[in-house]
Amino acid sequence: MTDPSYPDDLRYHEAHDWVRLDGDVATFGITWYAQDTLGEVVFFSPVAVGTKLDRDGDYGELESTKAVSTLVAPMSGEVIEVNEALDGAESSVNDDPYGAGWLVRVRVDDPSQADELMDAEAYQRFVDSL
Amino acid sequence: MSAGTLRRTPLYDRHRMAGARLVPFAGWEMPVQYAGGVIAEHRAVRERCGVFDVSHMGRFDVRGPGALAALQALLSNDLGRIDAGAAQYTLLLDERGCPIDDLIAYRFEGEHFMLVVNAGRAAQDWAWLHDRLGDGVALRDDTAGWAMLAIQGPDVRDLIDLPELAPFHFDRAEVFGIPLLVAATGYTGEPGVEVVVEAARAGELWDRVVAAGVTPAGLGARDTLRLEVCYPLYGNDLGERWTALQAGLGWVCALDAKRFSGSDALLAQRERGGYDRLVAFRMTERAIPRQGMPVAGGGEVTSGTMSPSLGIGIGMAYVPAATAEPGSVLEIDVRGRPARAEVARKPLYRKGAA
Lengths: 130, 354
Known about the structure:
The complex is a heterodimer. Chain A is 15% helix and 35% strand. Chain A is an alpha+beta fold. Chain A starts with 10 loop residues before the first strand and ends with a helix. By secondary structure, chain B is of the alpha+beta class. Chain B is globular. The A-B interface holds A 39-40, 42-43, 45, 61, 63, 65-66, 68, 87-88, 91 and B 32-33, 37-39, 220, 224, 286-288, 290, 305-306, 311, 313, 335.
């Protein structure tokens, strides 16, 4: 397991999902805190490419050896890619939650929605308060 | 149950020091996993060797004149088929033929037995036995004062010097200079032993076993290992809702050899046939089955997991007789989404076939 980290270039949702925004394309994943709480991830069941996501709506499930977690979309948009490489390598979500463990890519409806999410410092404070 | 009332095994401090995540289990504070995680522990047991603290399991000493006859009337399997030094998987059944518990009976010389029962059922077992064993038969709870380790995996005999034992046989032996009762039993589908040790020497034994290269493993791995080889778990796959025949445990019910608690009900059910029964299945779609998920057409998943050895979702379910044959297709309701599975022969995992 890795050490806790919350990269500065990401935005964070209180459901412990992160966003990396590049123009109007966003990558979603779960945070270090989320993977640590969930435990060893063994299964990723995303919505299909083409699915329209609502902000705060669910976009699939991650299942660990101990729990099932619903994935919460930090922003609205359309799924353009899911991380197929996780099939059989789900532990990447634990080992590299901000890299190889990314979950979906989304063409977002409104990039400015990111401004309403927490930055790394605010998310760190939020996690510390839990 | 509040944390203050949980019982701790003699190995509690070892678990804490090894970075275990401890959880309440059947009234005990038990390690569900250590720092390496469930999957690594599972693989260690399948490929090398792992050690589990199973001290929470109930250990009852039953002895005295009439003990054999009394147990023969209460337990489903035929103790007359084993000699002193052998053990037997058996059931304690109510009058309806439903398991109060599943357990292993160890036979000593004379009218002397040890029953190793599930922690979560020990109180019910005790009450049932206490009311029925009869005068002259002494029942004693030896759970406290002793510890029990399960050491399981293909390399067990390369790592630890153990007495030669046929499956389901046991003996007293010194291992690492520590006096033990060593039994060739287990709950993982791997070669191995379960040992009973005095509580005062449990920590020393644990340290020696771990130092020999055996990986500590928790309840999480114990569950995935047993499910791959389709050993039922009381509270999941066994309970007072289903009879022993429904659970597929007719092979431990000596219906043609003796009468026992529940045997009349089982004979009648065997005559009638057509009952729902426990089957093993593997998912043919990407999904993980879990306990309590409904099966379309009637039925219910009682255990489910992602199989670390097979890399697919597997489980067991009670289903109608019509869909109980291997190859039957089941549709499981995975949180509102139907997912297909196929009934398979037990065990789901076989060495070398993965």
